[in-house]
Amino acid sequence: MKKFLSVLAALTLSVSMLAGCGNKANQTEPSAVPESSQAAESASETVPAAPEASEQESSTAETAETAAVTGEETTVRVMALKGPTAMGMVKLMDTAEAGPVNGNAYEFTIAASADEVTPKLVQGDADIAAVPANLASVLYNNTEGKIQVLAVNTLGVLYIVESGDTVQSAADLKGKTIYASGKGSTPEYALNYILSSNGIDPEKDVTIEWKSEHSECVAALASDEGGIAMLPQPFVTTAQSKNDKIRIALDMTKEWDALQKDAENPSALITGVVVVRSDFAAENPDAVNAFLDSYKESVDYVNGNTEDAAALIEKYDIVPAAVAVKALPYCNITFIEGSEMKEKLSGYLSVLSDQNPKAVGGTLPADDFYYSR
Questions:
Q1: Which of 16, 79, 282, 320 is deepest in the core (most CB within 10 A)?
Q2: What is the pLDDT of residues 215-240, one digit of tens each?
Q3: In whole angstroms, what is the distance from residue 333 CA to residue 300 CA?
């Protein structure tokens, strides 16, 4: 059990910037991973112990059996982060307030950071969760396959912005200072990949000032007349609302796609995915498939009804409607499942693994990581 808790504490390494895409006023940043086993055990003391596997499986099986006998709907506990992943769910959240949707009674929780989600998911207190893409792989590896990915829900939301006009291509970043947050997670790996692929050494040819929060990058950008920052949406929109001279210089998703166009198996820059506990999926396949259908409908609604979706996004305290209206077209909210999901996500994880195997949990996930219906 002590080993399990140490592993659970270590999972916070993979917290991505997805939480940063929401309202940072109430957000906490992930803590660094302790280097010593003693420190790891100390950090894990704040996380309640997970139930024994047999106890958890028995409880879940009894719940499923009771529901089948009584004809009641299946309760599905869903967690998302303040940002694009939660934005894509708002229509489903709103519909679910009136009662069960396609046989599922939903309990939604919006978290400020991924390290709030991880223990709930691993210990069986959440069934489905939207998490950073590489964290899904780390969870899969560290729980011995107890987590599966259902769908890609957010493509790249990262942008290089500046208040000047000096950056027209990735090559122009050489010699520059870049403000960024998300060290040790998706933003760092994406930036390093794009820099190095354009002949720029991230360690020698640029100065990257890592901040603990995206809001700190916005502040640094505001105080530096010629500043350059890597920011996710909707923080780009927030920065522009404070300084109308700030412009989007590079779309990191387009830069990634340009580098991948001639690859044998092209990958995509992926920010977030939605995952499920494999035990829950095995015991409730109809509920999981119903969720996927409802979630896709919600994503389609959000992408097709910007103003109405922005009102719902404000209703659930994700970001203000005024920010959401401007940011939504740049948030790359999507829904990709099945073979296309596997192709894009496996390629993305492979790029991260080439940089640092720890970014994906030590090894690339096996085929059973990818849920298929």
A1: 16
A2: 888 888 888 878 899 998 888 888 88
A3: 9
DSSP letter (8 states) at residue 50: P
What is d(CA 256, CA 359) in angstroms, rounded to the nearest whole number? 18
3-state secondary structure at position 267: coil
| Spatial distance between the Cα atoms of 126 and 58, rounded to a whole number of angstroms | 16
Cα separations (Å) of 24 from 72, 85, 113, 308, 325?
38, 15, 10, 23, 18
Any alpha helices (H) in the chain, and if so which ranges? Answer: 2-10, 37-44, 53-70, 84-87, 90-96, 114-122, 133-142, 186-197, 214-223, 235-242, 252-260, 278-283, 285-304, 306-315, 321-327, 338-355
Q: Has this prediction a pTM greater than 0.85?
A: no
C-beta separation of 287 from 76 below 8 A: yes
What phi, psi does 351 have (nearest 5°)? Answer: -65, -45
Q: Name the pLDDT band for 19 (thresholds 50, 70, 90).
A: very low
Residue given tokens 């939903």 in the structure block? 106
Q: CB-based contacts of 65: which residues, under 8 Å, 6+ apart?
A: none
Non-local CB neighbours of 76 within 8 Å, separated by 6+ positions: 104, 105, 106, 107, 127, 128, 284, 287, 291
In the chain, the amino acid numbered 111 is A
End-to-end CA distance of the chain: 34
8 A C-beta contact, residue 328 and residue 310: yes
Tell me: the pLDDT tens digits for 357-370?
999 999 999 999 99
Q: DSSP string of 176-225?
A: -EEEEE-TTSHHHHHHHHHHHHTT--TTTT-EEEEESSHHHHHHHHHH-T
> Beta strands 147-155 and 270-277: pairing type?
antiparallel
